[in-house]
Design brief:
Blueprint lengths: L2 H4 L9 H4 L3 E5 L11 H9 L4 E5 L5 E2 L2 E4 L11 E4 L6 H11 L3 E4 L12 H14 L2 E3 L5 E4 L4 E2 L15 E5 L2 H13 L4 E6 L8 H9 L6 E6 L5 H9 L5 E5 L13 H5 L2 H12 L2 E3 L2 H10 L9 E6 L2 H13 L3 E2 L4 H8 L13 E2 L6 H13 L5 E8 L3 H20 L3 E7 L4 H5 L6 E2 L2 H18 L33 E5 L2 H10 L7 E4 L2 H11 L3 E5 L13 E5 L2 H10 L5 E5 L5 E10 L3 E8 L4 H4 L2 E5 L4 H10 L3 H4 L10 H17 L3 E11 L6 E3 L2 E8 L4
Parallel strand pairs: 1-2, 1-5, 2-4, 5-6, 6-7, 10-11, 10-12, 12-13, 13-14, 15-16, 15-17, 15-18, 18-19, 19-20
Antiparallel strand pairs: 3-4, 8-9, 8-11, 21-31, 22-25, 23-24, 23-25, 26-27, 26-29, 27-28, 29-30, 29-31
Length: 713
């Protein structure tokens, strides 16, 4: 719990005034031509905002036909939304003046807070305190606010020229104002109409989840993009994205993150912050784009009907383009159906040179008839077994330009008629690039790879939302202002002492695993060779001898383990070769496949569990699957089936299958242990030996890290 949660400052979920205010007051305006706040009313005029804009600045005066008031009290009405672009140390007093007027929604565009210097956090604390006192909700600071194309509301303090004539269906959330500008420019270049654009800055109160929840319920938004450098609350993001059929596309930057120390756990090496984000976003149905260009391409594909299956027909003006389309389709899991006989029969009548092979992808370089192109597209879309179509064509000067225009018109008409996506790939001449884009508000791609990738993404989203691969529902997480913003974790009663992770000793680790009925071979912890010999006689040979230090990661590389000790003489020789304060004598487990079960607490998603092939191959193969906790048996079975090594576990080339049910039960038991012990920050069970069907599985080695109170003197 953060300090803000302790104060009970909760965020209002009614964000209407941030998007549909009737009256907006802008603070920080002056008559100086270089004044940034003065750009905001000009932007609103350019975008056609029909509401009232009031200006407040210390010097007074006027701007155009608007008066600049010296205080908010002079306005005489209560604005729905306040926009602050004033010095950081004046924010709290200005918020107080707004609070006294009854203003509940505030956008703070001013920078110079924690993003600039950690010593400025006290200013953010003042904002939180003032907002709580007056029941306000704050967007920012360090943001450029909101653009709502539906109403013309335009709050950025950078000059913007409206070029789009109507509101589209794509809305964008961004932690960065600069990325907002990139998206606006790219969308304009692609003739892609936006609906709402939101810059959230430092996410002091409103984070991406609050805006996402609003956009999920927004009738004007059908497609949602999010640019983030950090997650406010990863679990809540997953829950929200899983609650809607609207595609949610995330561009998560800062992939490398801050420098990290060498991993003391295999799990940490396998599940770094970005690996966790990648796996969890994928499993939750969130579509992760790696660049703004890819994000725009995915926006474009979702303006078309869904790709409801993998079956594809492709046509191009050259054999080389056909080959590139074929490669791209295979890369993204799309399949080419046999060319329908209706199309083949029709084409035989029109081929001139007879050098075109009637196959799919189809080279149409020998055909110069735009009407025939349209007929071929329509016949393809009318086939029940065809889910989508790619057509690669030039946008040339001269007669070719007219054909291309007709093709774009036809593609749009047939897409709407048959409710199947037609993806056009075109490369224009330099001088008519914008002419091509302006023919229709219809997406055009420039290469086969981006076209095939976009169709595959459309198919993936369709499969998820059609219920064939349902996303597991996550419980709602209540959040107070500032929660999940990356501040150092504290617990009530800590009195300022941070919690620190400490590796648990071997005895405590094994005892905890045993309490949750996790399978362990017979073992004993000893300090001398005589104690070891007595323990081995009790356990039964053969045994393994290991150092009981929890700080050794790779025992085989540090002479810290000897296995297959068949008798007491072998055990004593092993003791002579190993130096340790404490030893683990353990019953040898029969041969089987080595797997790993691990857990770590991710700073943005919380506890996650991983499963993969284990032992010495863990970090070499990196063959793992991952889930948010908690999991149940169906989740565990799917985790096992997802790894490439599952073929080995199911039986391969004469080897029988292993006890997958026992492994799944082990995963669920680990999940329950971790849910009961949230103080555990990392856990490695490596290896977990998978034995033949009916013989279960066995934990051979385990290491645990727990969070505890730091002791200061």
């Amino acid at each position: 719990m953060t300090g803000k949660e302790e104060k009970g400052l909760m965020i209002s979920r009614d964000l209407k005034n941030f998007f549909f205010p009737d009256r907006v007051v802008v603070f920080g305006v002056s008559q100086n031509p270089s004044n940034l706040a003065g750009i905001i009313p000009r932007n609103n005029d350019n975008y056609g905002f029909t509401g009232e804009i009031y200006l407040v600045g210390q010097s007074g005066g006027s701007m155009g036909n608007r008066q600049i008031y010296r205080s908010v009290e002079e306005i005489g009405v209560v604005p729905d939304l306040a926009v602050l672009l004033i010095p950081a140390d004046s924010i709290s007093s200005t918020m107080t003046a707004c609070g006294k007027m009854g203003i509940k929604s505030v956008v703070i565009e001013t920078g110079g807070f924690s993003e600039f210097d950690d010593e400025k956090r006290f200013l953010e604390a003042e904002i939180i305190r003032t907002a709580g006192e007056w029941g306000m909700t704050v967007m920012g600071p360090n943001c450029i606010g909101v653009i709502n194309i539906e109403t013309g509301l335009t709050l950025p303090f950078v000059p913007l020229d409206k070029r789009q004539g109507h509101a589209g269906s794509v809305s964008m959330i961004s932690q960065s104002g600069g990325i907002i500008r990139d998206i606006l420019k790219r969308s304009d270049l692609e003739n892609l109409a936006l609906n709402k654009v939101v810059s959230i800055g430092n996410k002091l109160m409103l984070n991406e989840n609050d805006i996402l929840e609003y956009l999920i319920g927004d009738p004007g938004t059908r497609i949602i993009g999010i640019y983030l450098e950090s997650f406010g609350d990863g679990r809540e993001l997953v829950r929200l994205a899983g609650s809607t059929d609207k595609p949610v596309i995330v561009l998560k930057a800062n992939r490398a993150g801050p420098g990290s120390k060498a991993a003391r756990f295999h799990t940490s090496a396998l599940a770094g912050n970005d690996e966790v984000a990648d796996a969890i976003l994928r499993q939750s149905g969130i579509l992760r784009a790696l660049t703004t260009e890819v994000m725009i391409n995915w926006f474009k594909i979702f303006t078309l009907p869904a790709m409801c299956g993998p079956n594809l027909i492709a046509m191009a003006r050259s054999g080389g383009q056909c080959v590139l389309i074929a490669d791209a389709a295979a890369r993204y899991g799309l399949k080419f159906v046999d060319l329908p006989e209706r199309i083949s029969g029709m084409l035989r009548k029109h081929l001139r040179a007879g050098v075109i092979r009637l196959s799919n992808p189809l080279d149409v370089g020998d055909i110069f008839d735009i009407g025939l192109y349209k007929e071929m597209i329509e016949l393809s879309l009318s086939e029940p077994g065809v889910d989508g179509l790619i057509f690669y064509h030039e946008f040339e000067n001269g007669p070719g330009e007219s054909w291309a225009r007709q093709l774009i018109h036809s593609a749009r008409e047939l897409t709407e008629q048959y409710k199947k996506p037609v993806v056009l790939c075109m490369i224009p001449e330099r001088e008519n690039y914008f002419e091509m884009k302006d023919v229709e508000p219809f997406p055009i791609f420039t290469d086969a790879d981006s076209a095939a990738q976009a169709l595959a993404v459309s198919l993936r989203h369709f499969v998820r939302t059609s219920g064939e691969e349902p996303v597991k529902a996550q419980p709602r997480t209540s959040r107070a202002a500032g929660a999940g913003t990356g501040r150092e974790r504290m617990r009530p009663g800590d009195h300022g002492s941070p919690l620190v992770p400490v590796i648990t000793d071997v005895r405590a680790t094994l005892e905890l695993l045993a309490r949750y009925n996790l399978p362990l071979p017979g073992y004993a912890l000893v300090r001398t060779v005589e104690e070891g010999a007595e323990a081995a006689r009790r356990i039964g040979y053969p045994v393994a001898l290991k150092t009981a230090s929890p700080y050794v990661v790779h025992k085989s590389e540090q002479n810290a383990v000897h296995i297959g000790l068949a008798d007491e003489d072998a055990l004593r020789r092993a003791f002579d070769r190993m130096q340790a304060d404490e030893y683990l004598v353990q019953r040898m487990v029969p041969g089987g496949y080595e797997t790993i079960v691990g857990c770590r607490r991710d700073p943005e998603f919380g506890q996650v569990i991983i499963f993969g092939m284990g032992g010495i191959f863990t970090e070499v193969l990196r063959d793992t699957s991952m889930r948010l906790l908690p999991i149940e048996l169906p989740d565990a079975r799917k985790m096992i089936s997802e790894i490439r090594g599952s073929r080995l576990l199911q039986g391969f080339r004469g080897s029988g299958p292993v006890d997958v049910d026992a492994i799944a039960s082990c995963l669920v038991a680990v999940s329950r242990l971790l849910q009961k012990h949230p103080e555990i920050t990392a856990l490695d069970i490596n290896p977990l030996i998978a034995l033949p069907v009916g013989q279960g599985c066995m934990i051979v080695d385990a290491k645990m890290e727990r969070e505890t109170q730091e002791i200061t003197y």
